[in-house]
Write a structure and sequence with these properties.
two-stranded antiparallel sheet; alpha+beta; 7-stranded mixed sheet; globular
Length: 193
């Protein structure tokens, strides 16, 4: 398996994968309802590759996983992210980290993490934790924290992020009639298996 940063030559493969798998993070009973996955346009993928972080996992040249992290400026056009930015600017969120103690998460010291996708054939192999660890290493020189949100009903994603990704719940919030967990992780915190 190869884990690497995506390049612009990967855009078509990632776009095709996203079109096919955009609801793969959801349990079968959650698909087609109110809950939706997140996907990006080719232009947005290009910007993520050029100015942010888009990490791929490949087996024999086939993408079997990816994870994204981006500066807050990239996500500012989406209402949910604007809501998160306001919360990060006005509220106080502490993260506990074994190696560094407590820290305060803010807009200036964090970036948005996610989404992450793992091929069904690779789930349970440790790839999730490996992608998160690699991404943290890439992000760490610029940001000490990565922040994400997970819909309340997405139990599978919540379990993966808190158990395999080492993320901590900062808060629970409602937006547009849905509940979400706000989570963060220190980019210097090692994942313990």
């Amino acid at each position: 398996m190869v884990i690497r940063l995506a390049t612009r030559t990967d855009i078509e493969a990632i776009a095709t994968l996203e079109a096919r798998e955009w609801q793969a993070e959801l349990a079968p009973g959650q698909r087609g309802g109110m809950m939706t996955g997140q996907s990006f346009s080719r232009q947005q993928l290009d910007e993520l590759i050029r100015q942010h972080w888009l990490l791929l996992a490949e087996v024999d040249g086939e993408i079997v996983g990816y994870v994204i992290a981006g500066r807050w400026s990239f996500f500012g056009d989406w209402p949910l992210y604007r809501h998160l930015l306001r919360r990060l600017e006005t509220d106080r969120f502490e993260v506990d980290c074994f190696e560094t103690g407590k820290g305060i998460v803010s807009v200036s010291n964090s970036c948005q993490y996610g989404p992450i996708w793992i091929a069904p054939s690779q789930r349970g192999t440790g790839l999730f934790a490996e992608l998160v660890a690699e991404l943290k290493a890439l992000v760490a020189p610029q940001y000490p924290y990565m922040v994400t949100f997970i819909a309340e009903e997405n139990e599978r994603s919540f379990a993966a992020h808190t158990q395999k990704g080492g993320m901590q719940v900062l808060d629970f919030f409602e937006f547009d009639g849905r509940g979400y967990y706000l989570l963060a992780v220190s980019t210097t915190q090692s994942l313990r298996g």
